[in-house]
Design goal:
The chain is α/β, with parallel strands linked by helices and about 400 residues long. Helices cover about 15% and strands about 30% of the residues. The protein folds into four domains: about 10-20 and about 180-320, MoaB/Mog-like domain (Molybdenum Cofactor Biosythetic Enzyme, Chain A), CATH 3.40.980; about 25-50 and about 150-175, Molybdopterin biosynthesis moea protein, domain 2 (Alpha-Beta Complex), CATH 3.90.105.10; about 55-140, Beta Complex (Molybdopterin biosynthesis moeA protein, domain 3); about 330-400, Beta Barrel (Beta-clip), CATH 2.40.340.10. The chain is built from six helices and 26 strands. The model has no long low-confidence stretch (mean pLDDT about 95). The structure holds ligand LQZAQKY5 and molybdate ion. Ligand LQZAQKY5 binds next to helix 3 and helix 6.
Length: about 400
Amino acid sequence: MLTKRNPISIDEAQEKINQVKLPIQTETIPVEEANHRVLATAITSPYAYPHFRRSGVDGFAIRDSDDHDYPKTFKVVGNIPAGETFDGPLGENETARIMTGAFVPDNADKVIMLEKTTAVDNNEQLIKIMGTEKHSNISEIGSEFVQGQELIAADTELNPGGLAILSAFGIREVTVFKRPTVAIITTGSELIQPDEPLQAGKIYNSNGPMIKNLVAESGGEVTRYEQLVDDSDLLKASLQKAIAENDIVITDGAVSVGDFDFVGDAARSADILLFNKIKMRPGSVTTAFVENKTLVMALSGNPGACFTGFYLYVEPVLRRFVHQKTRIQQTTAILAAPYHKTNNFDRVLRCQFQMNSDGLKVYPNGSDQSGALGNLQTTTCLVKIPHSKTPIEVDTEVTTWLLPFK
Ligand SMILES: Nc1nc2c(c(=O)[nH]1)N[C@H]1C(S)=C(S)[C@@H](COP(=O)(O)OP(=O)(O)OC[C@H]3O[C@@H](n4cnc5c(N)ncnc54)[C@H](O)[C@@H]3O)O[C@H]1N2
Ligand code: MOO
């Protein structure tokens, strides 16, 4: 339907998305499956760590009171492999052979490394210690964590190192924020399935696989993925179901002013229309609305606009769902080539960045066309060319968004 839209700036559009209230949903999952998941509550140490005095080296445990007058022969009264304990105290000039990670006898104060000892007449009951050690070579109880100390803070995105910390305490489950569930609906009667032969007027769906993977990389869980022909009833039914069952719905295409731009109509009648026109190219038609408490992000069908719209408006909200900041780093950079086209709207160029001796430089990377996709693999940043009645000169300072996973 041809109705007048009210365009807003990129900043305003981002802010409107940022103001959408998101539900807080948590779930408890096995630690081993929690890589990249975000802790909903802090985890504290259930006990002091290490919880017993551990030897850091292979060697011989001795008492301080015997630690002098080397070389000296000690009586070997025990052998403590890792995993075993030792009963009874060491007596005068007595030692226990001990392995790395093993339980240190209660009254031992130091472990002398194996390299500083020599055998005595092939007699395993005796060992000659040649000299002392600077350090005790013992990890004391609680030397890494005292009981109740915070191990990992709430809102932390876990990584394999974090999983190791939790596993070290035998923690098997963690409470994390649920990943937002996302339905993706791509539209267009021109779209054919990958196994169909190419025909005049038809194209393969290139945005669908891109959006699916961008969502996954940004921490969303794709629960539904569709490729629909331009049919108002079909789209309405699918949109309704997707909205009822998901946290976020991403539609692609059918959002401008054409005869089949059903998503634009759905936006106009939504509970809350956030925006349906942005003063930017590509992606001026990018639309956002809230229906039945679900955020619907309607991206342009044009590949360049779809890519740009995802990074500028969808990635940040997927990250906010799990209490994380966007991974897109907004900064300023120096434009390495002039931009001659004049624009009423800001233009977002697909570029590549390089850190040079004179600072961060951005290089336009091929086509700026909304429908072009040849630069999507190699684009590493998006650059804002401000709307202007005159060309933008080389070396102008420009707002730049550095893209994650690039
Ligand atoms: N009369 C007007 N026409 C157009 C306007 C306008 O303001 N007035 N805006 C233009 C701009 S700007 C854009 S951007 C596009 C936006 O169109 P939609 O987002 O509604 O998308 P579609 O019309 O469905 O498709 C646009 C283009 O993209 C191709 N497409 C669609 N889906 C996919 C996909 N999954 N994978 C690859 N390519 C896809 C589609 O075939 C079209 O070529 O509207 C302009 N028109
Ligand atoms: O909305 Mo279009 O992508 O601006 O050219």
